[in-house]
Specification:
Blueprint: E1 14-15, H1 18-21, H2 26-41, H3 43-47, H4 49-68, E2 75-78, H5 81-91, E3 99-103, H6 108-121, E4 124-128, H7 138-147, E5 152-158, H8 170-179, E6 183-187, H9 199-202, E7 206-210, E8 222-226, H10 252-258, H11 266-269, H12 271-280, H13 285-308, E9 322-327, H14 341-351, E10 355-356, E11 359-361, E12 368-373, H15 380-397
Helix pairs in contact: 5-6, 13-15
The structure holds pyridoxal-5'-phosphate.
């Protein structure tokens, strides 16, 4: 069986966009379906927290706690990273004139959440302008240092950036922040299943991430780690029964996040199957998966950069399983005048050549970008075909080039 046959992705499409929403393997969907059937056979038994739900959630918590090397009691579940980021931001004791430092490579939705939280408190966000292309992770630190002020209370930083697919030096950023008594919220949306995470060594104040991207769990499934001293301050986005707990056997942090009203917990409960499946793909387990995806991504980036005649936009060490390439979209588009060039190129690549991948103009970045994702089911031949198509489009538009 080929690796890609474990997924039910449309074989007519070269799917190079695992990064946006992930893709769930058949075996994981099957597990989720079985869980749903169990749930519907006796909804009370399954969903009443103190009957089956809490023990089941605690098993899932153990899976994540092993994956990220953190204590089980410090891991709450959320629907996704956006949910985790919002919970931290809306609970944070901001005061008037406080600043939240975000970056120009940050995920728009989360930067919006930071803006909203700051504005409500009478503060503001400041944006560290990180270049792209960039030379090394020192450029990230330098850009952040320039924007730290005596009013900075929180830094929101991506572990792996969404538009540029770069692994940021989170440990160094945390040291920088700690020295200035600033808290750090790491948005690790892409990290689980893409790279090793050790929260004990990293020691962030808050770290949230998705299981449904690179770990290939069902959507919507994620976690929020909060360092023990701050757990009393962090509340979920939905306040429910856990706000006035009568229990002494479980922290309010866990009780509140475990129950935010009736919901479908099966995406969370299938995370163990997802992690085991991804671990089983190669003899070397997750380490081999990370390495193989990383090598394919670097090779894919090289093929595209060669075809576009540009230099690699970042050092190889900042790459995991995502690679973003700056692109002059107008060189490649048969412009129809109705869409922005980036959207237009994406449409052409999808509709005419059956590639699924993002091509976008990011508001905060000086260049349009094209991003590839390389998951276990991707093959380098897919990127080779993409490079050929881009060269062909460029030739058509610029016949004398
Ligand atoms: C850095 C980052 N944060 C947050 C998200 C949002 O993920 P979700 O929609 O699952 O909350 C993404 C999605 O791509 C992301 O890349």
């Amino acid at each position: 069986m080929l690796i890609r046959d474990h997924w039910q992705l449309n074989p007519d499409i070269d799917f190079l966009n695992h990064g946006s929403f992930g893709a769930c393997p058949r075996i994981v969907l099957q597990k989720q379906y079985e869980l749903l059937q169990q749930l519907e056979r006796d909804p009370i038994q399954f969903l009443a927290p103190e009957r089956e739900l809490e023990p089941k959630l605690d098993e899932a918590r153990q899976t994540i706690s092993n994956l990220v090397n953190a204590s089980k009691s410090d891991i709450a579940f959320v629907r996704n990273s956006t949910d985790g980021v919002n919970a931290v931001l809306s609970s944070f004791p901001f005061e008037e004139h406080d600043e939240i430092l975000v970056t120009s490579h940050g995920y728009n939705a989360c930067n919006n959440a930071a803006h909203h939280a700051a504005q409500k408190a009478g503060g503001k966000i400041t944006i560290a302008d990180i270049p792209f292309p960039l030379n090394s992770s020192a450029d990230v630190i330098g850009a952040l240092e320039k924007k730290v002020t005596s009013r900075t209370r929180l830094i929101l930083i991506d572990h792996v950036t969404s538009p540029t697919g770069l692994i940021f030096p989170v440990e160094e950023i945390i040291s920088l922040a700690r020295a200035k008594d600033i808290r750090v919220l790491v948005d690790g949306a892409h990290a689980p299943g893409m790279l090793p995470i050790d929260l004990t060594t990293m020691a962030p104040d808050y770290y949230t991430a998705n299981h449904h991207k690179w770990l290939c769990a069902p959507k919507a499934s994620g976690f929020l780690f909060v360092t023990p001293e701050l757990q009393h301050q962090v509340r979920p986005n939905v306040i429910s029964h856990g706000a006035n707990p009568t229990r002494s056997d479980r922290s309010r942090f866990l009780t509140e996040f475990d129950w935010t009203g009736t919901h479908d917990p099966t995406p969370l409960l299938a995370v163990q199957t997802a992690a085991q499946f991804m671990e089983s793909l190669y003899a070397g387990g997750l380490t081999e998966l990370y390495d193989k995806n990383h090598e394919k991504t670097l090779r894919g980036r090289e093929i595209l950069c060669d075809a576009l005649e540009i230099a690699a936009p970042s050092h190889n060490s900042m790459i995991g399983s995502l690679a973003t390439i700056p692109i002059q979209t107008e060189q490649f588009c048969r412009l129809d005048g109705t869409a922005a060039p980036a959207e237009n190129l994406q449409k052409i690549l999808f509709q005419e050549y059956h590639f699924e991948l993002p091509v976008f103009q990011c508001r905060e970045l000086p260049t349009a970008c094209l991003r590839i994702s390389m998951q276990a089911y991707n093959e380098i031949s897919q990127v080779e075909r993409l490079a050929e198509v881009l060269s062909q489009l460029k030739q058509e538009r610029n016949p004398r080039v």
